[in-house]
Write a structure and sequence with these properties.
- The complex is a heterodimer of chains A (about 300) and B (about 550).
- Chain A is an all-alpha fold.
- Chain A has a domain of about 220 residues: MetI-like (MetI-like fold, Orthogonal Bundle).
- Chain A is built from twelve helices and no strands.
- In chain A, α7 packs across α8 and α8 crosses α10.
- In chain B, strands 11, 12, 13, 14, 17, 18, 19 and 20 form an eight-stranded mixed β-sheet that branches. In chain B, strands 1-10-9-8 form a four-stranded mixed β-sheet, with helices on one face.
- Helices cover about 30% and strands about 20% of the residues of chain B.
- Chain B is of the alpha+beta class and about 550 residues long.
- Chain B has 18 helices and 22 strands.
- The chains are: A mainly alpha (about 300), B alpha+beta (about 550).
């Protein structure tokens, strides 16, 4: 186990390094510069002065080197657009995105597995069709459109839910304000889990040991929930690892529409404004989050399925 | 199964759309203006959307529109836009210029308090200009508006003198345009004013009617009434700015009454808003014009007939009707109609007339000789690459312009980019054949920087127009401070522009703003200008 952790840690460092190199050079290849220099009415002299202040006159390789040395010491630099430390700007946003992500994953997993089992059990019956139909809608309707429709319906017409913001101090307010963003985010992840659970269940149910358990005269409930489910869940767990990056990219749109002060919106603003330091900072943090969550998924995976040991 | 699924999907989407389509209450048209609605009531909160995190420093290079709106309430300039579109007193009570036009003296208001209790004096004005604006290494936002300024001198505690290197009659108007004064006592020991985050992102200290109470990045900021405000404490208790990047969310919140007032950037949802019974839609003139710029260093655009032909080829009225719902006036020069004293309607005009366009092109030697549908001259086709930024309605406009030009035989290709890339290519590298954009400028006819030959190449003279005659006229206009004498010069300038087309003028847009009907005594000017009067606003319950 320890060996596995050390190996994964080493791989992660290399991965983060590669990601930062690609991001840094891609960002700097993109035409334009920090938005302070990109006003239509800025004069050449103004642009020069700002480039000088922001240290953008050095070659890209030198700038990457400087950035890397500082980053290894835990200093991600100052945001080019606001002058604040990058770490501060990220850390004030992270909890909000985590809040959405954790709820979305929880709901997607719980509801997704339940619906998936139901769908498999009632294969080709109306329940299966309804769930299938819901999944298709969830996956195919663009989330920005659905989000606006939700706001118009639940906030403007019915006045039930706040249309934006993170709510106040009370738990109820926080719940109502995160409800719509979480539902919209779930539409992208939940159907995947439903479909994976369904197909995985169907596959397991057709295997010999299930027939054996039924032949032994076990109750259908025991067959499904004790024998089939445990085996069917293994691929479902692995898919959660894949869903986390997708979820993070989903927050980009959802956070913009719902005025949610999370990391997804931050990186869009940073990229549009060519805030190189902030883009790098968010990239590093998000990469670490994805690596850690995948690591956790792998650990759970090996616990649930004893045949899988020390997956690398 | 598939068919049934598709049908059900369509049905679901239709129902969802229909659910939110209708208006719960019957739309009634109430065009009551804000005047004469009884006694002023105290208290309440006004909510305004902004699209990003603001920076509480009007001179910061990153202080964009979202910051300007907030800074206009926290800080104040020496002057502000008057209701008659002329500069009105703000921190300065009166001003005079010297005989030679090289010195302007401003008498400052006495007894003005900063939010931290210190007194506002001439030192603050001198500091703001001498140490921030005129420090070239800082590259302050809008510093180039003050190119004529040499130094600000403190005459006494409440008097400052602006010393200029050239006569600059527009100075009072430019001082009203995002040129707010910063407190010297806060900045005195600060080495880099742009990284002074305790102030710029933390606790700004201004002289405005509201002070910052609370700010959460990415979410919202609350301003509360500053009781020692020198113009008399405001009626409202608080002003809340909600950070909402998505324009559809903004409109939804205006409909539900969560947002009170803002300028509408996107005309797509006009119908919904017009039907809403809690909102007044106000259209106002603003100092802005849309233009096409062609590269005047390229010989094919140097014939004025070619530029005139392009103007006749484009049906500007039709584009205004289809893209911006008619909220604009066709433009033929740079001086906007809101400047009533200076705007000249009697200039050369260009109606939509493709035949006239072809005639003019023929005069310039361009004709479709080989019958391939494209104009040619000396065996070369008239090809144009039309660069366009993905911003607001620019792309929509560009597609129509492209079609009109193709109709008379130009071979036009659209090249769409995001804003940042467009600035890099078109403005910094000056690499373009044709581009589309707009200029907003302080409400004053001095547009020298957009036209003078010394501003070609790297300044704001984007098409690189160069004419001694226009240069002289612009310099003359800049030097005269008497409004009537100025008007004569700017009449001539507008004639010249319409005739010679340094830019291809499109239109003067009107600003549409949303105002909740409970808001009272918001002056009938553009949204950004009305913020200077926020201390007079009140809410009718």
């Amino acid at each position: 186990m320890l060996q596995f952790v050390i190996k994964r840690f080493g791989q992660s460092i290399v991965l983060i390094l590669i990601v930062t190199i690609i991001t840094f050079f891609l960002m700097n290849l993109a035409p334009g510069g920090p938005s302070s220099m990109m006003r239509l009415d800025a004069t050449e002299e103004e642009r020069q002065a700002i480039a000088e202040q922001l240290g953008l006159n050095d070659p890209v390789v030198v700038r990457y080197g400087n950035w890397l040395v500082n980053a290894f010491q835990g200093d991600l630099g100052l945001s080019l657009s606001s002058g604040e430390p990058v770490m501060d700007r990220i850390m004030e946003r992270v909890p909000y995105t985590l809040q959405l992500a954790v709820w979305t994953i929880l709901i997607s997993v719980i509801v997704g597995i339940i619906l998936g089992i139901l769908s498999a059990k009632k294969r080709n019956k109306w329940q299966d069709h309804v769930i299938n139909f819901g999944s298709v809608i969830g996956l195919s309707v663009p989330s920005f459109w659905l989000a606006i429709m939700f706001i118009l319906l639940f906030s403007v017409q019915l006045g039930w839910l706040p249309s934006s913001g993170v709510g106040g101090a009370s738990l109820m307010e926080q719940f109502t304000s995160s409800l719509m963003p979480v539902i919209i985010l779930s539409t992208a992840t939940l159907p995947t889990i439903v479909r994976f659970t369904r197909s995985s269940m169907l596959e397991v149910v057709s295997q010999n040991f299930i027939r054996t358990s039924r032949a032994k005269g076990l109750k259908e409930r025991v067959v499904i929930y004790s024998h089939a489910l445990r085996n069917a869940l293994i691929p479902v767990i692995s898919i959660i690892g894949v869903l986390i990056p997708r979820l993070l990219s989903g927050t980009v749109i959802v956070e913009s529409v719902f005025g949610w002060p999370g990391i997804g919106r931050l990186i869009v603003e940073a990229a549009e404004g060519r805030d190189y330091n902030l883009v790098m900072g968010v990239t590093v943090i998000v990469t670490i989050v994805v690596i850690i969550s995948n690591f956790i998924v792998d650990i759970i995976y090996s616990k649930v399925d004893p045949r899988v040991k020390n997956v690398g | 199964m598939k068919k049934y699924l598709v049908f059900a999907l369509v049905l679901f989407l239709t129902i969802l759309t229909a659910c939110v389509g209708g208006n719960p209450d019957e739309a009634e048209s109430d065009n009551g203006t804000s005047e004469g609605n009884g006694e002023v009531q105290q208290g309440g909160n006004v909510s305004i959307p902004i699209i990003g995190d603001p920076i509480f420093n009007p001179w910061h290079p990153n202080a964009y529109a979202e910051s300007n709106i907030v800074n206009r309430i926290l800080f104040q300039g020496l002057t502000k836009p008057g209701l008659d579109n002329l500069p009105a007193p703000s921190l300065a009570e009166e001003w005079t210029d010297s005989e030679d036009g090289l010195t302007w003296t401003f008498e400052l208001k006495e007894g003005v308090k900063w939010h931290d209790g210190e007194e506002f004096t001439a030192e603050d004005v001198a500091f703001t200009f001498n140490n921030i604006v005129l420090d070239e290494a800082l590259g302050a936002n809008g510093a180039s508006n003050f190119n004529a300024l040499e130094e600000v001198e403190v005459v006494d505690t409440y008097t400052v003198a602006f010393h200029l290197n050239n006569p600059f009659a527009s100075l009072p108007a430019y001082l009203a345009f995002n040129a707010e004064i910063l407190p010297e006592h806060q900045f005195a020991d600060i080495e880099d004013p742009w990284n002074f985050t305790d102030f710029n992102k933390g606790t700004p200290v201004g002289t405005g009617p509201f002070e910052l109470e609370d700010y959460t990045s990415g979410q919202q900021l609350t301003l509360s009434r500053f009781d020692d405000y020198h113009g008399g404490a405001a009626n409202l208790d608080t002003v809340t700015f909600k950070i909402l990047p998505d324009v559809n969310t903004q409109i939804a919140q205006a409909l539900s009454g969560e947002l009170d007032i803002f300028a509408l950037e996107d005309k797509a949802s006009l119908d919904r808003i017009e039907d809403a019974d809690n909102i007044n839609l106000v259209s106002s003139d603003i100092t802005r014009y849309y233009w096409l710029a062609v590269d005047l260093e390229d010989p094919k655009f140097q014939d004025v007939e070619v530029r005139q032909a392009m103007m006749h080829a484009i049906d500007r009225e039709a584009i205004i009707d289809s893209v911006i719902d008619g909220y604009a006036t066709v433009a033929n020069s740079a001086i906007t109609p809101d400047q009533e004293q200076y705007y000249n309607e009697d200039v050369k005009t260009y109606d939509y007339n493709p035949d006239k366009a072809l005639e003019l092109l023929k005069e310039a030697g361009w004709e479709d000789t080989n019958g391939d549908g494209v104009l040619d001259k000396d065996g070369e086709d008239f090809t144009v690459t039309f660069d366009i930024a993905l911003q607001g309605d620019l792309e929509q406009i560009a597609v129509l312009v492209q079609q009109y030009l193709i109709d008379v035989g130009f071979d036009v290709t659209l090249n769409t980019m995001e804003w940042n890339s467009m600035i890099q290519k078109n403005v910094i590298e000056r690499d373009f054949e044709m581009m589309l954009n707009w200029w907003s400028y302080p409400t004053d006819p001095d547009v020298l920087s957009q036209y003078h030959s010394t501003h070609a190449g790297s300044g704001n003279n984007i098409p690189a127009y160069s004419s001694d005659q226009l240069d002289e006229l612009l310099e003359e206009g800049q030097a005269i401070s008497d409004p009537d004498e100025r008007a004569v010069v700017y009449d001539e300038i507008q004639d010249y522009m319409a005739e010679n087309l340094p830019y291809l003028y499109l239109w003067y847009p009107q600003e549409l703003s949303i105002r909740n009907k409970r808001l009272q005594d918001v002056p009938d000017i553009y949204f950004g200008g009305s913020l200077h009067y926020i201390n007079e606003w009140w809410i009718k319950e």
